[in-house]
Amino acid sequence: MNNPAQSLTQEKTALARLVEKLRQEQALLSETASEGMTDLISEKASIVAEMTTLAGHRHQILARLGYADDEGGMQQWMNEHSSDDDKEIWAALFDLAQDAKELNRVNGILIGKKLSINQSALTILQGKSNAGNFYGPDGQSSIKSVGRRLGVV
């Protein structure tokens, strides 16, 4: 196998599946409940492993052909040897990669917000915040008021 573009269609298909999983992840992160997230993370990991294997094979071929074993080497090979179809697939791969990068960035922000909300809730439940403590350890109200207590002369 001397054509590093041979598996570009498979890479594009895998990347399209990853983009779809990232969109599903974003939808789950936007909801209150995140049921199904564990399965989704596993599916994403499997797709990323497949993509890594495909890119690794492409990089090995590039190195055997005397090109840099990275995207720059692939671009050079594409400029010198590829067909128009290969160039279209390569361009589509870059477009999908940009989509994946942006979805991943937004998902990271959503995850950060969820973590912050959960941490705040845990802090209140653990009694580390005065804002959430209405009763002290003796069962009496911990809210202090200024002035006289009602019914006391």
TrEMBL record:
Keywords: Bacterial flagellum biogenesis, Cell projection, Cilium, Coiled coil, Flagellum
Pfam families in UniProt: FlgN
Membrane-spanning parts: none
Coiled coil, from the record: 5-35
The protein's role, per its UniProt record: Required for the efficient initiation of filament assembly.
Family: Belongs to the FlgN family.
The protein's name: Flagella synthesis protein FlgN
